[in-house]
Amino acid sequence: MSKRTKSLPQQRGFVLFDVVFEDGTRASNRRVPMEILGGLDGDEPARQLIAEQEAEIAQKAGRAPREIQQLTRSPIAKPVIAT
Questions:
Q1: Is residue 54, in this structure, part of any structural domain at all?
Q2: Region (Disordered): which ranges (predicted)?
Q3: How far apart, in whole angstroms, are the C-alpha atoms of residue 78 and residue 74?
Q4: Does residue 4 fall inside a structural domain?
Q5: CB 40 within 8 A of CB 63
Q6: Contact 73/15 with Cβ under 8 angstroms?
Q7: Which of 28, 54, 55, 81 has the most CB atoms around it within 10 Å of its CB?
Q8: What is the pLDDT of residue 42?
Q9: What domain range is 45 assigned to?
Q10: In a domain, 38, yes or no
């Protein structure tokens, strides 16, 4: 009888993005669920989601939404071990 191989758990969580808007302002660490990334579209679904988030924020703040100029993944900080 052959052994049943266990499937590896899927990585779940969020990917953080840094956003630069057309007016030069910057928003760091915008959270995007990992489930929408990784397809053939690359990070384009993240751009769409962040644009939707920005529209909601702008509506609540009573201002026009800002256009995204640049979208990059936030660098992962390495933990510092105190010695």
A1: yes
A2: 60-83
A3: 12
A4: no
A5: no
A6: yes
A7: 54
A8: 84
A9: 14-73
A10: yes
pLDDT of the residue at 58 = 94
Strand 68-73 to 14-21 pairing: antiparallel
Nearest CA to 67 among 54, 79, 80? 54
- CA dist., res. 83 & res. 81, Å (int): 6
Q: Residue 8: its pLDDT value, please?
A: 55
Quote the pLDDT of residue 75. 86
Q: CB-based contacts of 37: which residues, under 8 Å, 6+ apart?
A: 15, 43, 45, 46
State the Rg of the chain over Cα.
18
What type of residue sits at position 43? D
The Cα 51–Cα 71 span in angstroms is 11
Q: How many domains does the chain have?
A: 1
Return phi, psi of residue 60, to 5°.
-65, -35
